Amino acid sequence: MTVFEATCTAPVNIAVVKYWGKRDTSLILPTNSSLSVTLSQDQLHSKTTIRASADFTSDRLWLNGIEESIEKNKRLVACLRETRALRRTQIEDKDPSAPKISNLAIHICSENNFPTAAGLASSASGYACLVYTLSKLFELPLDASDLSIVARQGSGSACRSLFGGFVAWEMGTKEDGSDSKAVQIAPETHWPDLQAMICVVSDEKKGTSSTEGMQLTVKTSALLQHRIKEVVPKRMEDMIAAIHNKDFPKFAELTMQDSNQFHAVCLDTYPPIFYMNDISRAIIRIITEYNKDGVKAAYTFDAGPNAVIYAPKDNMAEIYAILSHYFPNAAFDDSMGLLKETALPSLP
Ligand code: PMV
């Protein structure tokens, strides 16, 4: 029996202008555009293998070695439905000799080389990897922006992991979501001097999922309305200019301001959502102190307590030394470029 198989990896992306809020929860259409940096595949990535075979009786999924239900996961079902429909319309309907892979059941096996759902963007790399691997399995003649429209329906931030380098997710205006897609602002080769360090403050699963959290924010936060109307449009323009000009101080200032406003919007949600903890706030204070005489590093935090520090390559050793000084129990795992910290530090 013929088995069709594809394996791909996809990297994590960390936003510097955050996506927070949906205007359409089933199509996953955002309330603002966002922008991220895709990390190197050597750092954090998902790896997915998908097989299709007439021997399989149903679609099945294994996540980090444990079987999970597909039917309960509406978003995964949407990605499968969309890619199968594309296989039919783009290939099987046009070429009667093409194998009818869209009718076969599939088995999906996906792994992350980092903690899942700890605010380290596992859903971004996971869904980007799923959709990209399906596109290879089905041999879809689509570019990364087209695929981003499908990946977006798995997890919003996933659409940005279809590209390397610096990536914008344009919110779009159409009701069907056909213009809500990712575009590359600059390739990974554009700014090789910019590096990211991931500080794992906690690898536990986060308390409030981004889905729950952002809908509560949309319903209750007045600050979010100010952010999406008055702040993000200009910040997107300024961030794109800072990236094109490789202007690190401007890039860093905008990144930190945007992280701060995202967490302020979480605090303005009712009841409030706290993603950062005391260690996260200590990291903010350390970086702020380090930047006193000129901006040399930027912190950013997603929906969890872990920090990502962006800095020029030459500053990284110094930043690592400073963080190790304040967090003496931190372990540094060279293979993944992760700084792991569990003990509560004394504040600087
Ligand atoms: O794609 P989601 O539902 O995991 O949301 C991600 C939201 C943030 O990570 C906090 C911000 C972003 O733009 O990635």
Automatic annotation (TrEMBL):
This protein's record includes keyword Lipid biosynthesis: yes
EC number(s) from the headed UniProt entry: 4.1.1.33
Enzyme class: lyase
The reaction(s) this protein catalyses: (R)-5-diphosphomevalonate + ATP = isopentenyl diphosphate + ADP + phosphate + CO2
Ranges for domain Diphosphomevalonate decarboxylase-like N-terminal: 10-181
Gene Ontology BP annotations: isopentenyl diphosphate biosynthetic process, mevalonate pathway; sterol biosynthetic process
Superkingdom of this protein's organism: Eukaryota
Domain Mvd1 C-terminal: residue ranges: 196-348
InterPro entries referenced in this protein's UniProt entry, alphabetically: GHMP_kinase_C_sf (IPR036554), Mev_decarb (IPR005935), Mev_diP_decarb (IPR029765), MVD-like_N (IPR053859), Mvd1_C (IPR041431), Ribosomal_Su5_D2-typ_SF (IPR020568), Ribsml_uS5_D2-typ_fold_subgr (IPR014721)
Family: Belongs to the diphosphomevalonate decarboxylase family.
Protein name according to UniProt: Diphosphomevalonate decarboxylase
Biological source species: Dissophora globulifera
Gene: MVD1
